[in-house]
Amino acid sequence: MVTRRPSPKRPKLVGVVVCLVLAATLGIFTSGLLPPGWKVLTATLAAISAALMMLAQFAWDRPTVPTSSGRGSLFPARDQFWNLPVRLRSFQSRPREIGRLDSYLATGSGEVRIAVVFGMGGVGKTSLATEFVYRRQSDLSCAWQVDAHSRESLIQSLAQLASRLGIDEADHHTAATLALVELAHRERWILIYDDASWPADVVDLLPARGSGSIIITSRNPNWHTIAPSIELLPFPADDAVRFLVSSSYDSSDAVSALDVAMRVGHLPLALELIAAYCRTRHVDLESYAAFDQGQKRGAVESAVYRVLLRSFRSLCWRDPVAADLLRLMAFFAENAIPRRLITEYPQLLPVSLRKCSKDPLMLNGAYASLFELSLIRQDTKVSVHIHGLVQAALRQVIEDGTRSWSRRLVSLVKDRFQPLGFWRFETAAGWRPERWHRCATELLAAAFPLADSGSAHWDACAELLPHALVVLSEPTTNRSPIARIDLLFAVGRYLHDRGEYQRAVSCLEECLRIRLATHVDSRVEITRLETNLAMALRAMGRTDQAVDLHGASLRRSALEHGDQDPNTLYASVKLAMALRTRAETRLSAMHQHLSRLVPPAEADLLEPLLNDLRASRTLRSARKIVEILSNRDRDISTSFLEANGAELLQVVDSLETDLLTARSLQENALVGYRGLYGDDHAETLYAANNLSTTMRTIGDMDDAHKLATEVMQRYVRLMGQDHPDTLKARNNLALIVRAMGDLNAAKDLLTYNYECRQRVLGDLHPDTLRSANNVAATLVALGDHSSALSLHQSTLQALTRVLGPNHPDTMISRSTVESLRRSLESGAPG
């Protein structure tokens, strides 16, 4: 039987008299020591002393807990056995987690039900547990929250519960044990072990039996040996917006609420503090979203940082390797940080992580330390996730920790004496943010594959792209220009291949600027960089700039390496492609110009040729139209000829010059590649395919068809049906077949190629959208105007979204849609 404190029988009057006598004695004594002018002060002190002693006496003589004998003892009123915090009015419903807690803690006789809620700091674990208890308060006799962040605080909290239960025991550990024994004889109680750190701290302080429940909240996910666990994650986007809108000063601005919620990663603690800040200061969400980072940190985020990194200080002493690993992660993107970055490039890491990366047991231990504190969580089998606010807090800690001159001096001394062996094991705690940023940049530059390697590396590029963009968004540092140049080039090439031309141009332009300004020895040659930038400009429709840059690159390469060097041959092919693209763009513009200006009397004669020019964009079609318009024997208005004849002839002559120059460059490059690599090399096939495309644009269909067929067969044999280069070759062959008049065969080829590009490149890749336009143009030639219009309209919407409304491909598609609409409205067959 548990012993209980007996009720004291001290007369209150005696206590009051004693207090007054002591206070009077104190007043007399001090009045004799102090100067006469201080008598008022001494009297005041005596009165205060008397009052405090009386309060202490009344507190000492508080009523004790009534008890009853026997094991079926009854609880007193609930307010004496209920220490939970006030229920949150703003609690955002989490029905899934509440339901799982309810199932884990379902009523059972004679056994203690335990459930664990774990997650990062500030995610709302305690709020969820408290809300669960409040929803069941009518069925409970006791609910007690225990501070379990350390074993000492756990024992002390259980000892306080023992005191409330009437257990008189001076030793806290014994009192805690007796409280658990007493709970085993009671019913309808629930304990919340709040913020438990380690299972070992609480495993022997859990009730062995009884009709009650225990909820353990923790940042540590490793509780599977004790109880079923529930991982609590930040709010979904909709719940975060709903919480902010319902809790803040402005309850109508959902757009600003979504922006604010995204910036803090939907973390409940941050959202609650933001809502309180806006509500108490009458600031709307739009105004808060407009705060700069320093203002937000001063308003709310500093408090969030303290909660998130409360365990980081102890981690620095307990596992400095894990602390360094976490510091490095702060400079990547928050999602899917690949573990291989640490293991594949140890020479680029700080000393502590360099040693750790070579020891799998040590590295796994470092990851385990971070998982136990929920500073990171597993994303996939090969990557981890870190919350964006944890990263921001870490960067702030790193910046604040390296501002003092003493820390800088220690770091400098370690850097200078490390090669001499004075520090055999060094952490990077003193590294400045710029040094961590340089380390992250070098890791990504080494890991990011060059897109020249083909689509086989696209998955690896896609995995690293978010981290590369985060690193590159930081201000340029002159301490690692080589790594930044290499990373900018690799990212720009990949973005170009994926059809994101605007971002590709931005990366490549910055790369060229740094390359020319620093004169460092980078693996990215200036000639190669200029060529790739010109390719991206050409893809954006800025063909004149692309031609100029390609020309400069070709001249530089020929001067430095010679005419038959692979770099020079590559620059020749790219210049030819830019010339051909400029010619095709001008042919499209010529079609739009003639469609508006041709006299109605000549519309019937020129309509087939205009349709052919729109579909094929060949020099032969343009030449035929000019010849017909220049024929004075035909009945064409003199004013139209005088206004447009000379201009049209000049345009066609310019197009012919560009295309013949392009053909000559490509023929020379093809001869050079065959001599260097043979017929089956990727560079040889690339040059041959582009030569056949130029032949098609000129109108030399027989030679173009022969060369395109050979290239297509070699691509299929060497690279397979779905390789992006195979898809380009098949598209070129299908356009040649269509220009030669075999529309059905062209339709089959183009449709199959369109489906392949959808599967391989995605629905919104520019090459996929061009395939859709080619299929629609073939449908027009076959007379199926309705189907063609539907496909053209959907493609126009996608092109406007991907390339913008002013890109040449978008403008051509828009003109085609308008022409088809007019054709259908005028009663053309469909």
Describe this structure in words.
The chain contains 36 helices and eight strands. Helix 7 (199-202) links the parallel strand 3 (187-196) and strand 4 (211-218). The model is unreliable at 1-12, 57-80 and 417-425 (pLDDT under 50). Strands 2-3-4-1-5 form a five-stranded parallel β-sheet, sandwiched between helices. A three-stranded antiparallel β-sheet has the order 6-8-7. The chain has 830 residues and is mainly alpha-helical. Helix 21 (458-473) crosses helix 22, helix 25 packs antiparallel against helix 26 (566-597) and helix 29 runs antiparallel to helix 30 (682-698).
Quick rundown:
The chain has 36 helices and 8 strands. It has 830 residues and is mainly alpha-helical. A 5-stranded parallel β-sheet has the order 2-3-4-1-5, with helices on both faces.
Give the topology, please:
Layout: H1 12-33, H2 39-60, H3 95-104, E1 113-118, H4 125-134, E2 142-147, H5 151-164, H6 172-183, E3 187-196, H7 199-202, E4 211-218, E5 229-231, H8 237-247, H9 254-263, H10 268-281, H11 285-289, H12 293-308, H13 312-318, H14 320-329, E6 337-338, H15 340-344, H16 351-357, H17 360-372, E7 377-380, E8 383-385, H18 388-401, H19 405-417, H20 433-447, H21 458-473, H22 481-497, H23 501-518, H24 526-539, H25 543-561, H26 566-597, H27 603-616, H28 619-630, H29 638-677, H30 682-698, H31 701-719, H32 724-739, H33 743-760, H34 766-781, H35 785-802, H36 808-825
Parallel strand pairs: 1-4, 1-5, 2-3, 3-4
Antiparallel strand pairs: 6-8, 7-8
